[in-house]
């Protein structure tokens, strides 16, 4: 499976994904959970020592059993050691038996690693309403333990194993000098369809070797997720299983980052946000049936929340997404989507551009070369590149971005036979 790690800026790290930071190992295995049974379908991420952690989860009221399990662990505040992930079955809408399966999975990992079940977290993806095939899944856990390694090969295998309709695996890592220490942040995620803010059919694991307190780490991850995974949309559907788990091992050494107002905390948050944004963009770019990424930048908003909301509205407009696929520079759909976002602004200040093509300024439509604008969209689609949309509001100084993709015929084909 191809990697799309290049969507994050390249940094000189010796290993990819979740094992780039010190103190982590990972493995993948084939348990036979998928319908085809020919691909690896489970992964295990393990921290050598107890890790501070943070989680972000779906807001769907039909939350999957592993989401409920992790929320309970989050409430305890206890450190963790492992994250077990499976593809094939979502273990969502499975009732009390699904809850029991989650607990049994955590207990099996704990027994294999010699740790407490409370130190194990879970993520699942696949068909909703289906229990995990527990017998083969539990049998795969000793295989996962035996395969744990801190290598590029192991990280790539894990990032591939968790994919469902994804066409590319999504894993990358960055490093930064923070307080005189080289800190690394790595991550992997999956997601292609059922993608919408709060969050998406998306699983992600982020690892970091910075020493950081839980009081700093948890709100930092919440802000980073809000700026990244909660700013992407493919189809307007929010899943039952969306989960981001972020582990900080502290293996880089030194004093813990404990002051949220410190320069070290600010630098760490920049690194985390950059990594999650790169992964989020890779999810939107790999949207089911997509031919291009759509990046919407809203500037001149009264505040950040307003900018984010309008950007999401434009990126999620089915009419605009279909226009991009049809290579039709119908910018009226951009204006309409900005207008129905629920954010008040003066339309007489509105400015819109599509790539290099200015389409509206000061609330007035501009003459533009429609053929050239159409060619801009066509070139992006042929190269699986990026369509840049800029919306100016003239109301303030806040800016935000959101990411989506075009809406093609293949999206319907993929989802018409997803479970059968």
Plain-language structure description:
With about 425 residues, the chain is an alpha+beta fold. Helix content is about 35%, strand content about 25%. The strands form two sheets. Strands 1, 2, 3, 4, 5, 6, 7, 8 and 9 form a nine-stranded mixed sheet that branches. A hairpin with a 2-residue loop joins β12 and β13. α1 (about 65-75) crosses α2 (about 95-115), α2 (about 95-115) packs parallel to α3 (about 135-145) and α5 runs parallel beside α6 (about 265-285). It starts with a strand and ends with a helix.
Shape field: globular
* Low-confidence sequence ranges: 1-12
Average pLDDT reading: 90
Radius of gyration: 21 Å
What separation lies between the terminal Cα atoms? 23 Å
Helix content: 25-40%
Summarize the main sheet: 9 strands, mixed
Task: Describe what is shown at a glance.
The chain is of the alpha+beta class and 420 residues long. It has helices spanning 65-76, 95-113, 134-146, 152-161, 214-227, 263-285, 304-315, 318-325, 332-339, 370-382, 409-416; strands spanning 2-3, 24-29, 42-57, 80-89, 120-127, 168-178, 181-190, 203-208, 243-248, 293-301, 351-354, 357-361, 364-365, 386-392, 398-405.
């Amino acid at each position: 499976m191809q990697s799309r790690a290049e969507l994050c800026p390249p940094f000189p790290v010796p290993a990819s994904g979740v094992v780039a930071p010190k103190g982590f190992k990972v493995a993948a295995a084939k348990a036979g959970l998928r319908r085809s049974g020919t691909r690896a379908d489970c992964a295990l991420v393990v921290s050598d020592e107890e890790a501070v952690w943070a989680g972000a989860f779906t807001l769907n009221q039909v939350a999957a059993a592993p989401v409920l399990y992790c929320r309970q662990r989050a409430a305890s505040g206890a450190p963790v050691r492992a994250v077990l992930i499976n593809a094939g079955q979502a273990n969502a809408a499975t009732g009390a038996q699904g809850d029991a399966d989650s607990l049994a999975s955590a207990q099996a990992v704990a027994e294999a690693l010699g740790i407490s079940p409370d130190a194990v977290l879970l993520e699942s993806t696949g068909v909703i309403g289906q229990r995990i095939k527990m017998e083969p899944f539990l049998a795969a856990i000793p295989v996962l333990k035996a395969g744990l390694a801190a290598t590029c090969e192991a990280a790539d295998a894990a990032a591939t194993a968790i994919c469902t309709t994804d066409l590319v695996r999504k894993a990358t890592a960055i490093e930064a000098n923070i307080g005189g220490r080289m800190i690394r942040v790595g991550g992997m995620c999956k997601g292609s369809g059922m993608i919408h803010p709060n969050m998406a059919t998306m699983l992600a694991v982020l690892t970091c070797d910075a020493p950081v307190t839980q009081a700093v780490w948890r709100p930092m991850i919440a802000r980073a997720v809000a700026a990244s995974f909660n700013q992407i949309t493919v189809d307007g559907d929010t899943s039952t299983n969306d989960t981001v788990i972020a582990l900080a091992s502290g293996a880089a050494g030194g004093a813990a980052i404990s002051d949220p107002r410190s320069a070290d905390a600010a630098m760490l948050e920049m690194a985390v946000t950059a990594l999650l944004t790169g992964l989020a963009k890779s999810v939107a770019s790999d949207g089911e049936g997509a031919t291009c990424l759509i990046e919407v930048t809203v500037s001149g908003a009264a505040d950040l929340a307003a900018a984010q909301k309008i950007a999401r509205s434009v990126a999620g407009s089915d009419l605009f997404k279909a226009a991009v696929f049809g290579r039709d520079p119908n910018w009226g759909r951009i204006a309409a989507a900005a207008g129905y976002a629920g954010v008040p602004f003066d339309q007489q200040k509105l400015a819109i551009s599509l790539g290099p093509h200015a389409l509206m300024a000061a609330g007035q439509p501009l003459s533009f070369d429609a053929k050239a604008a159409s060619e801009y969209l066509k070139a992006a689609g042929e190269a699986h590149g990026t369509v840049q949309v800029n919306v100016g509001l003239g109301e303030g100084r806040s800016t935000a971005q959101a990411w989506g993709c075009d809406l093609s015929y293949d999206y319907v084909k993929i989802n018409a036979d997803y479970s059968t």
